Amino acid sequence: MRYIGNKTRLLPFIMDTLADLGISPGAAHDACAGTAAVGRELKVHGWRVASSDIMTYSHVFQRAYVVLQRVPSFAELRAGDPELRRALRSPRFREAAARRGTGALAPVCEYLARWLEPRGGFIASHYAPARGAGRMYFTDENAMRIDAIRRRLDEWRTEGLIGDGAFYLLLAALIEGADRVANTAGVYAAYIKSWQPNALRPIDLVPLVPTRGAKGSSAYLGDAEQVAGDLGPVELLYLDPPYNARQYTGYYHIPEIIARGWFDTVPVIAGKTGLPRVADRSLRSAWCSAGRAEQALRGLLAASGARHVLVSYNSEGLLDASVLEAALRDASVDGRTRTFTREYRRYRADRDHINRRYRADGLRELLYYAKLR
User: Could you tell me which CATH number the domain at 8-68+214-247+285-371 has?
Assistant: First the structure.
């Protein structure tokens, strides 16, 4: 998923830094998990990860990529869904599924992405041009497929045909698939007023296959400070907070709606971009406020039972380096911090324009370390 602050390209830097510090795998709290890329990598390297975030789509990724250890069998689904069984009898379906690979996941993804009948619903009604107030986030066809897939996942789960692991794995694939065909520049604060090539492609489900790692990883939907206090002692607190004033509730409201669903409570949306009218204030991050970010950092450090803390930040963050380092020094056992630096290309969600000019194409990713206990 295209995501501000995604650390996928920086994973070797993070893991090398932990090795340089001599910190052995144990229990880790990934406090602002985002797309769960770091939590997944920690798990692969032997860490037992407790990941947390306030956004529901992040919780979906955590459950799919950090908690889940293997691909479910889908035996109950194959036995209990007559439409899927009918598709499985088709040679054409089996050939198409085989092109996706072997295993139980391939036919399920083929069925959802290509054989399930498109069905208009919430996404088509609000985020596609025909009925969505002219909004051009998705083509009408892709929007109806998103609606149909999301509803079918909810039905399968309610009927007991898939468990939580399968549900979150397929829902993560839907969120990522929708993002690949979204007619945006990378965030959902605006849609592009002409169809981009990626938006005209049919949506597909290409799930990230679960990886085995340390058992006992967990996911929490909630505030990092509260989760840290509940977890108690851990070896590592890894913190990758938002760097700027852009609230993720407005930049990723459509992935959040897909993650939550609309079957129990229908969101009331308004405005040009279809933002939920009554925004959940608990989703507004203190890290996105220059006046509250330092307090958020100090509160988390005080609540955490971690022995070590590693903070990812970049050279254009709201928190000045001196403020961040001072908070870490105050929380450390020896009054010292260490800083590790890596240059990388900026993620751009849009181009330079009269109201938005990027300072440079390059940024410095900074890892701040302190020993807390």
Answer: 3.40.50.150
- Three-state DSSP at 129 gives coil
Q: In what order do the strands lie in the sheet with 233-239?
A: 218-221, 48-53, 27-30, 233-239, 305-314, 362-371, 338-345
pTM over 0.90: yes
Domain boundaries along the sequence of the chain? 8-68+214-247+285-371, 75-200
Task: Scan for tokens 């032997």, then name that residue.
Answer: 46
CA atoms in the 13 A half-sphere facing the CB of 7:
31
Taking only the tens of pLDDT, the chain with its 373 residues reads 989 878 888 999 999 999 999 999 999 999 999 999 999 999 999 999 999 999 999 999 999 999 999 999 999 999 999 999 999 999 999 999 999 998 999 999 999 999 999 999 999 999 999 986 799 999 999 999 999 999 999 999 999 999 999 999 999 999 999 999 999 999 999 999 999 999 999 999 999 999 999 889 999 999 999 999 999 999 999 999 988 888 888 899 999 999 999 999 999 998 999 998 765 666 788 888 888 999 999 999 999 999 999 999 987 889 999 999 999 999 999 999 999 998 866 555 555 444 444 455 567 889 999 999 9
